[in-house]
Design a protein that fits this description.
The chain has 106 residues and is an alpha+beta fold. 41% of the residues lie in helices and 29% in strands. It has one domain: GIY-YIG endonuclease. A 4-stranded antiparallel β-sheet has the order 2-1-3-4, with helices on both faces. A hairpin with a 4-residue loop joins strand 1 and strand 2. The protein is globular, with a radius of gyration of 13 Å.
């Protein structure tokens, strides 16, 4: 199946943590995270969408997701986001949160 898929990064100020995932419906996925319907993110509510990448296939999205998840530190994730900012298919969703994180972590 082809279509638009997204790799997204959420940030929880409550946990000071990132969550990386992939989906074909970023809006409803964020709602599910913030309703507590996703076990792994339940303790971090509220989650803010700070970054996403558009991919043309689920397999591409899964590969990009894995690249981010293999980065074990917040600093490395933020540096990777910075590299993606110039790509047209990526979007910094909440630049104010991202800027604060970049200043405090890098």
């Amino acid at each position: 199946m082809t279509g638009k898929y997204y790799v997204y990064i959420l940030y929880s100020a409550v946990r000071d943590a990132f969550y990386v995932g992939q989906t074909s419906d970023i809006g409803s996925r964020l709602i599910r995270h913030n309703r507590g319907e996703v076990t792994s993110t339940k303790s971090g509510i509220p989650w803010e969408l700070i970054f996403n990448i558009v991919c043309l296939s689920r397999s591409e999205a899964m590969q990009e997701e894995r690249k981010f998840k293999n980065l074990k530190s917040q600093k490395k994730i933020l540096l990777r986001i910075q590299k993606y900012q110039d790509r047209t298919e990526s979007t910094v969703v909440d630049s104010s949160v991202l800027e604060k994180l970049l200043k405090s972590k890098i």
